[in-house]
Design the sequence.
């Protein structure tokens, strides 16, 4: 296999072990993902990013992180500033929708500045799930609002802020996790809403942002689409809904294969996801035995995945938007009355 393999992998700690170096050099993942366990100081995080890219021999290899703000934030004080959850941006709408949009974009632009400084060029943001009042709190305050219109408007603002700062956004969790009554980290959610209801509410923000470069699937069964398989491993969900109805033609990645919503061994999970239409699979926890299982079911990028991968990399700007960080942070903090300073 000459090119990268169709996988995004994590590592266990702050530096790479010899076993990890040898493994990554052999399997050549398309990208990597960092978590709090991999982050100590800016200098250490940058060195780790550079080491990962050196191993696969691609200076722009995607390095991902989940830096949403609120309870999903891998970069923490004292080295990095705090950011609010999506809901806090939505609550600004009561005063002035244009201000809410501006501050959402500004927050994402500040996050992009933080990430780019440590070599991270992809953020798993924005969350485009529209929460159901009866749904599980796993989405909760991560959502920008309660309506598809609000979620789409502020989600696009966040995506634009990241792109302007040289960081690629990922829309998630396509085609929508908001109605799920359970946490897919722990079990498989089953959503029984009718297709028309899903189309009007859950799918709508993803349709509005279908021009984004990357999307992450939901480990959720939608009985109106496929009674047996979650979207991640469902050909019906990916072809008919994500690709055709929503119109997303960017790089589609699975959510984390180690989540308990999925069944089967790791080889089978990887094969099922790729066979269903995912372009790449994601494995996050850095467990070497699990990664070896995943990679036994993964080959190189498909022809379509290579095309989409190239389109993704073409979206990375070489020169970022001019930006006065101190002034931007002061304006951002003022919008929230210093609550996240």
Sequence:
């Amino acid at each position: 296999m000459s090119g990268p393999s169709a996988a995004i992998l994590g590592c266990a700690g702050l530096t790479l072990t010899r076993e990890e170096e040898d493994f990554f050099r052999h399997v050549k993942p398309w990208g990597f993902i960092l978590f709090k366990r991999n982050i100590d100081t800016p200098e250490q995080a940058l060195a780790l990013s550079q080491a990962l890219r050196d191993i696969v021999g691609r200076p722009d290899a995607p390095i991902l992180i989940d830096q949403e703000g609120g309870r999903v934030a891998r970069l923490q004080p004292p080295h990095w500033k705090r950011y609010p959850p999506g809901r806090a941006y939505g609550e600004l709408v009561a005063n002035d929708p244009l201000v809410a949009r501006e501050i959402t974009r500004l927050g994402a632009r500040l996050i992009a500045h933080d990430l780019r400084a440590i070599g991270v060029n992809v953020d798993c943001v924005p969350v485009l799930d529209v929460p159901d009042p009866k749904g599980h709190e796993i989405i909760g305050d991560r959502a920008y609002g309660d309506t598809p219109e609000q979620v789409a408007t502020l989600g696009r603002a966040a995506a634009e802020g990241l792109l302007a700062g040289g960081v690629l956004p990922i829309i998630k969790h396509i085609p929508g996790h908001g109605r799920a009554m359970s946490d897919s980290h722990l079990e498989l959610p089953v959503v029984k809403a009718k297709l028309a209801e899903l189309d009007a509410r859950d799918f709508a923000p993803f349709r509005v942002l279908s021009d984004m470069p990357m999307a992450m699937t939901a480990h959720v069964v939608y009985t109106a689409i496929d009674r047996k398989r979650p979207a991640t491993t469902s050909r019906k969900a990916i072809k008919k809904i994500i690709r055709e109805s929503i119109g997303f033609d960017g790089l589609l990645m699975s959510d984390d294969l180690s989540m308990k919503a999925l069944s089967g061994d790791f080889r089978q999970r990887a094969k099922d996801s790729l066979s269903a239409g995912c372009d790449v699979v994601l494995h996050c926890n850095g467990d070497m035995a699990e990664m070896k299982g995943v990679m036994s079911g993964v080959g190189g990028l498909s022809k379509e995945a290579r095309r989409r991968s190239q389109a993704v990399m073409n979206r990375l700007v070489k020169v970022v938007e001019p930006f006065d960080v101190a002034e931007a942070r002061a304006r951002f903090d003022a919008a929230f009355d210093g609550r996240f300073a």
